[in-house]
């Protein structure tokens, strides 16, 4: 192959042979200690840019052909048609990115220890709330311009994408919905027209990760007072943000943070 088009076509064939989704490829790359953002890979396979050498390395390893990385790097070097220049001015990635936007909860201060007791909830938060089926935004009361979305943990301790807080203006075209479950609980679903659907699951670390299999997602109970909500997970605590500012990670812990949920 001696052109960018041929090289990109070969990368698409490699993904097809792997039989893996974008999210699965990202996780496989992380298992090899590498970073492979789904949004970056989507741009590469759409022909919008050539992959950087480290992205190509992560992708080939994730596809199970790590022993052929050198051959792929040589093929990349021979693809002389420029591909990355047109995308250098693109806004940051749209969905499942290293810096995408979804809806998040901002903390008014530092994060506290995990609480498993519903008694941590203020007395006024006692009634489960009904949620609309239409797309919504989840915004922290303390930072109403931020919404819950996906991104990477800031210290790099965990490779796959997790829930973080980002500017609400960067969320589209992703949508967020609350899907009703039994006993007044809901799962939080993120859907993108290209990358599909993922539902939030609380990990052992307290981080929240979007999973393809929504049947394994974590149920949330919404406790409402006026126009504010506490998002509770039975036996674990409530949704909150560790730290402050853009890209701060969402965690499940003490029930001391409130959110506004409104139409997107």
UniProtKB/TrEMBL annotation:
Keywords: Membrane, Transmembrane, Transmembrane helix
Database matches in InterPro entries: Cro/C1-type_HTH
Superkingdom as given in the UniProt entry: Bacteria
Transmembrane feature ranges: 95-114
Protein name: XRE family transcriptional regulator
Native source species: Lentzea indica
């Amino acid at each position: 192959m001696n052109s960018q088009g041929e090289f990109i076509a070969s990368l698409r064939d490699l993904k097809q042979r792997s039989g893996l989704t974008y999210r699965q490829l990202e996780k496989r790359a992380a298992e090899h200690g590498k970073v492979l953002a789904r949004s970056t890979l989507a741009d590469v396979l759409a022909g919008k840019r050539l992959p950087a050498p480290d992205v190509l390395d992560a992708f080939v390893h994730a596809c199970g052909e790590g022993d052929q990385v050198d051959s792929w790097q040589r093929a990349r070097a021979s693809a002389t048609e420029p591909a990355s220049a047109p995308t250098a001015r693109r806004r940051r990635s749209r969905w499942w990115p290293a810096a995408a936007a979804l809806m998040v909860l901002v903390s008014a201060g530092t994060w506290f220890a995990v609480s498993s007791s519903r008694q941590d909830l203020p007395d006024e938060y006692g009634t489960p709330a009904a949620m609309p089926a239409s797309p919504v935004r989840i915004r922290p009361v303390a930072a109403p311009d931020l919404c819950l979305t996906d991104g990477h943990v800031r210290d790099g301790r965990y490779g796959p994408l997790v829930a973080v807080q980002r500017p609400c203006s960067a969320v589209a075209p992703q949508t967020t919905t609350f899907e009703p479950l039994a006993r007044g609980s809901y799962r939080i679903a993120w859907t993108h027209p290209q990358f599909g659907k993922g539902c939030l699951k609380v990990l052992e670390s307290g981080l929240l990760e979007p999973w393809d299999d929504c049947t394994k997602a974590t149920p949330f109970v919404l406790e409402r007072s006026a126009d504010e909500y506490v998002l509770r997970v039975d036996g674990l605590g409530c949704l909150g943000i560790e730290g402050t500012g853009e890209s701060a990670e969402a965690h499940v812990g003490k029930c001391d943070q409130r959110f506004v949920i409104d139409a997107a």
